[in-house]
Amino acid sequence: MSARRSSFPLSSILLVFLLWGCDGNEDLHKAAMDGDKEKVVSLIEQGIEVDLKNNYRWTPLMHAARGGSLETVRYLLGKGADVSLTDDGGWSALTRASAKGHTEIVRELIKAGAPLDPKTNKGFTPLLWAALMEHAEIVKLLIEAGADAQARAEDGRTAFMIAVTENHNDVLQVLQAAGVKP
């Protein structure tokens, strides 16, 4: 009787172990990602840098903004987290919160002075992401704060074009009410 061979090669198993944790996320990143404010507070109080970057230049603020943890975002902002930082893809905390539809976090980041029009590597601003993901209230907040409503992504689309082509009528209504033209 011959031994049964696995169809999963050993080299694949080794690669998985080598890549495990390759994002460089530290405990602070993980706590911010999980919205574990108490752990974030503890780690910051131990002297961990509030803007600690992982291998992709994500900061704890970016993780908390993406994850929707308003209290963690507020704490990090209170500790001086830099709202202007972007990761390797050009995404800021505001971009991440806008794309995910975290309205209150967007409001906090705007209040903290986050740049309104950072562009991702594909040329998308927070406003363009909010339009694409159909977050009309965030589109309104960004326009009221002074975001460029005529910004174009790398593919040439504006928020207005996105709203029309994606049939996001609520976003289109916000744009039209703000006087945005095609």
Question: If you had to describe this structure to a student in words, what would you say it looks like?
Answer:
The protein has 182 residues and is mainly alpha-helical. It has two domains: 25-115, Alpha Horseshoe (Serine Threonine Protein Phosphatase 5, Tetratricopeptide repeat), CATH 1.25.40; 123-182, Alpha Horseshoe (Serine Threonine Protein Phosphatase 5, Tetratricopeptide repeat). The chain is built from eleven helices and no strands. The chain has helices spanning 10-19, 27-34, 37-45, 60-67, 70-78, 93-100, 103-111, 126-132, 136-145, 159-165, 169-177. Helix 4 (60-67) packs antiparallel against helix 5 and helix 8 packs antiparallel against helix 9. The longest helix is centred in the first third of the chain and has 10 residues, at 10-19. It starts with 9 loop residues before the first helix and ends in a 5-residue tail after the last helix. Residues 14-20 have low confidence and may be disordered.
Helix/strand/pairing category: mainly alpha
Mean pLDDT score, rounded? 90
| Helix content, binned percent | 40-55%
CATH topology of the largest domain: Serine Threonine Protein Phosphatase 5, Tetratricopeptide repeat
| Helix count, DSSP H or I runs of 4 or more residues | 11
Task: Report the CATH superfamily of the largest domain.
Answer: Ankyrin repeat-containing domain
CATH class of the largest domain: Mainly Alpha
Order of SSEs, N→C? HHHHHHHHHHH
Q: What is the terminal separation in angstroms?
A: 72 Å
If classified by CATH, what would the architecture of the largest domain be?
Alpha Horseshoe
How many strands, what sense, and barrel or not for the largest sheet?
A: none
Number of strands: 0
Q: How many domains is the backbone divided into? A: 2
Which regions have little confidence, pLDDT < 50, spanning 5+ residues?
Answer: 14-20
Large-scale geometry: elongated
